Amino acid sequence: MSHTNIPQPLFDTLEHLQEQAHDVQFWRYLDSAYCLDDIVMAARFLQAYKGSQGTFNAYRREVERFLHWAVLIAEKNLSQLGREDIEAFIEFCQKPPKNWIGTSKPARFILKDGQRIPNPAWRPFVATVSKAAHRRGQTPDIKTFELSQASLNDLFAILSSFYQYLVQEEHARANPFALVRQKSRFIRKIQGASKIRRLSELQWQYIVENTRKLAETSPAEHERTLFILSALYAMYLRISELTASPRWAPQMNHFTRDGDGNWWFTTVGKGNKERKIAVSEAMLEALKRWRKYLGYSPLPSPADYTPLVPKNRGRGPITSTNQIRILVQYAFDAAIEQLHHDNLSEEAETLYEATVHWLRHTGISDDVKTRPREHVRDDAGHSSSAITDKYIDIELRERHESARKKRIVDDEFI
How many CA atoms lie within 13 A of 334 on its CB side? Predict the structure, then answer.
């Protein structure tokens, strides 16, 4: 086969995946070269990640690319691939053929005549541009596609885990990803801690103050946004932890008071892990303000099952992470406009790149300066203190301060 073969999507959304895994006829649209046993094994492997939408999406993306490459490029099934094949696959991913690259993320499957069929617009790889570039009118270009170091790390971790599963299920004899001798050829080592993408103190102040002013003049539109900003920052929540899903729906009574009078918030995060977060006095005041706007008592009772973040129209909780992104982006845009107005253009320009997840990073980074890292670790849901340590930037500040006055040449020689 050749690079001219354009792959079609293999795996649908979580709600349809189980049906696929038990009905091989679903893949009748595929070329006969595809090994249905490989695809079914992959579908069953992916089902194990139904606890987290983000994790499932990442695993589906990598496994799907790999299966397409194995059939269309290497012309082998999963049990036939060795170390040299894996190295060839990685090189392929770093520079895939242009007809494998898209510039948008359309739905993988579409409904036609009551049947779910593969979307011909779907591609395994997607070229993107930064938020700031998009605002300047720049559009994605498949010619500039580049696989990031983070994506390469994901590729190794996910597909190695996939092969471990195949070995356990006796569908493969060995894990060829574990046999790649020189991963450093592909994965660049970074000296020191990687930079945490976060807001500056001034940017965060502008975002909060502007949103408060908006909420005072138009509470119906902006009180909810103000509460969302507070929860994402003060409790380090991920966007998925504020939206309702089949596995978890945040409610008012997930705020609880213990025997000592301390308030805690219970959530379910990555890996379907439940955790309790210590609620600060400031966060408690933000909750009271939000509940007052909704017409509720100042604090929830254990019997208060109302949604924590309800829809503005209709009943029930917000279920779309995209809706929260839109609300937060509006707050960012208002702050950007005010920063420009106050002649703080440099702060405004860097805020163009900010995403919702930066609020979690900012909250952790600010707290780890004053709170015990173990406390921050547990509230953030980090699996180890090593992850929390990445947010400690005091050493970087001191390092830069010691370098600030370095000279290139003595003044007397100039």
Answer: 21
Superfamily per CATH, domain 201-399: Intergrase catalytic core (1.10.443.10)
- Give CA–CA dist 94/181, Å, rounded: 18
pLDDT tens readout for residues 296-331: 999 999 999 999 999 987 789 999 888 999 999 999
Q: Give the Cα separation of 294 and 306 in Å (integer).
A: 11
For residue 28, the number of C-alpha atoms closer than 13 Å in the C-beta half-sphere is 5
Give the span between the Cα atoms of 78 and 67, in whole angstroms. 8
Q: What is the mean pLDDT of residues 378-402?
A: 69
First to last CA, the chain: 67
H/E segment holding residue 117: strand 115-118
Q: What is the mean pLDDT of residues 401-410?
A: 62
Neighbouring-strand partners of residue 275: 267
Q: Which of 140-154, 209-223, 263-277, 343-357 has the lowest mean pLDDT?
A: 140-154
Cα distances (Å, whole numbers) of residue 135 to 180, 200, 317, 343: 41, 21, 30, 20
CA distance 381 to 265: 13
User: Does this model's pTM top 0.85?
Assistant: no
d(CA 263, CA 287): 11
Q: Which two tokens stand for residue 300?
A: 């929830």
Rounded Cα distance between 324 and 229, Å, is: 10
Q: Are 11 and 46 in contact (CB under 8 A)?
A: yes
Amino acid making up residue 117: I
Region(s) of the chain under CATH 1.10.150.130: 14-185
In the chain, which residues fall in CATH 1.10.443.10?
201-399
Lookup: tokens for 198: 């976060």
**Class of domain 14-185 (CATH, top level):** mainly alpha
Cα dihedral 252, 243, 204, 271 in deg (nearest 10): 100
- Residue whose pair of structure tokens reads 């829809």 in the numeric block: 311
Looking at residue 190, what is its pLDDT?
Answer: 46
DSSP state of 219: H
Cβ proximity of 120 and 129 under 8 Å: no
